[in-house]
Specification:
alpha/beta; Rossmann fold; four-stranded parallel sheet; globular
């Protein structure tokens, strides 16, 4: 008996419809036949996420989308921003697996190389990437962090400039850092991984694709988010204003 198709919710935490479409396309390329990618983004919030303030704003939109996905019965949730905003809070709300693309990409990089580099957008986000490396325990695996010094939405402006800078930084990461793999540090770079892998001759890992395959693997193993300890459902308490009912 073949398993039923999965519905995987892919959440772009910013409000950019164009970036949501890019992320959705990358997810659908790797999804197993029959599995559905449900790509969503919040209607309110920041158009791009490029700092701690943006992440704080984005977290509410992520949680609202996770709740909608949980109520609709999706089989997994993906947070498609490299800061993994609201990841642990989302796991409290969810029963199905919740995967952040940074954590997913870093995990996979350690399975195919002993050292990896990260290429991201603005220099200010390098500190956020360092925090995540420490939080996830991958500091010793990371050989270098690089920024293209362009905003996230430059990946969607049609000029190709941001994509070329990503390429240049990936080559530099390979040659200067001696890394065996490169992690792309933005959901908007999701469509670049395969061509860069072919050109550079080393794995270039997109966290969106990595997260899709992790959700599928967890579903195949029958593993869901633990409701024991700190990831138990949020405590039942009255929330006011726009937060009303979010913890139910």
């Amino acid at each position: 008996m073949s398993p039923r198709p999965l519905i995987i919710q892919v959440i772009n935490p910013n409000t950019s419809d164009a970036m949501t479409a890019t992320i959705a396309a990358a997810a659908r390329v790797v999804a197993a036949p029959g599995n559905e990618i449900l790509a969503v983004c919040p209607q309110e919030g920041a158009p791009s996420i490029e700092g701690h303030f943006d992440e704080a704003i984005a977290t509410l939109g992520v949680l609202e989308q996770v709740k909608l996905g949980r109520d609709a019965g999706v089989d997994g949730h993906i947070i498609a921003c490299f800061g993994d905003p609201g990841l642990l809070a989302a796991r409290e709300l969810a029963t199905a697996p919740v995967i952040g693309i940074a954590e997913a990409a870093m995990h996979l990089a350690t399975l195919v190389a002993t050292r990896f580099s990260i290429v991201t957008t603005l220099p200010r986000t390098l500190t956020i990437a360092r925090h995540l490396l420490h939080q996830y325990g991958f500091e010793r695996h990371c050989a270098g962090l690089h920024a293209i010094d362009l905003p996230v939405l430059a990946l969607e402006d049609g000029s190709g400039t941001a994509q070329q800078k990503v390429r240049e930084q990936c080559i530099a990461a390979r040659d200067r850092d001696g890394s065996g793999a490169v992690v792309l540090g933005c959901g908007g770079m999701a469509d670049l991984a395969r061509s860069l892998t072919d050109e550079l001759g080393i794995p270039v890992i997109d966290g969106v694709s990595a997260a899709v395959k992790m959700v599928e693997a967890l579903a195949a193993l029958g593993l869901r988010t633990s409701k024991q300890g700190d990831l138990a459902y949020p405590l039942a308490k009255p929330l006011s204003g726009r937060f009303h009912g979010l913890n139910q």
